[in-house]
Amino acid sequence: MHTILLYDFVEDYLTRRVAYRSEHLALADASVARGELALAGALADPADGAVLVFRGTSPETAEAFAKADPYVIHGLVTAWRTRRWNTVVGEGSSR
């Protein structure tokens, strides 16, 4: 099982992210190094949100990530939510 963290972005996200991108990526890289974050990236065409996939059944790790994320702290993310994802196919699936 995985937990998905979904972000909704402000309209001018691509412009505003520049100031916080290195700090955001450092947070993501640290989460990957701890074995928490499996995949992450912004949605394209339009760039109005992002999807981050965390390993494990508890949303607490994803929620802690969001609360510490400079994109959230500095208002680039207008809303975020977590969803448990029952993965059944692919590397790391729970089947």
What does this structure look like?
The chain has four helices and four strands. A hairpin with a 6-residue loop joins strand 2 and strand 3 (49-55). 32% of the residues lie in helices and 32% in strands. The mean pLDDT is 95. The N and C termini lie close together (9 Å). Strands 2-3-1-4 form a four-stranded antiparallel β-sheet. With 95 residues, it is an alpha+beta fold. The chain is globular, with a radius of gyration of 13 Å.
Distance between the termini: 9 Å
How many beta strands in the DSSP annotation? Answer: 4
Query: What is the 3D shape?
Result: globular
The largest sheet, given as strand count, sense and whether it forms a barrel, is: 4 strands, antiparallel
Number of helices: 4
Strand order of the largest sheet: 2-3-1-4
Helix/strand-derived category reads alpha+beta
**Rg value:** 13 Å
Order of helices and strands: EHHEEHHE
Helix content: 25-40%
Stretches with pLDDT under 50, minimum 5 residues: none
Tell me, rounded to a whole number, the average pLDDT.
Answer: 95
Strand content: 25-35%
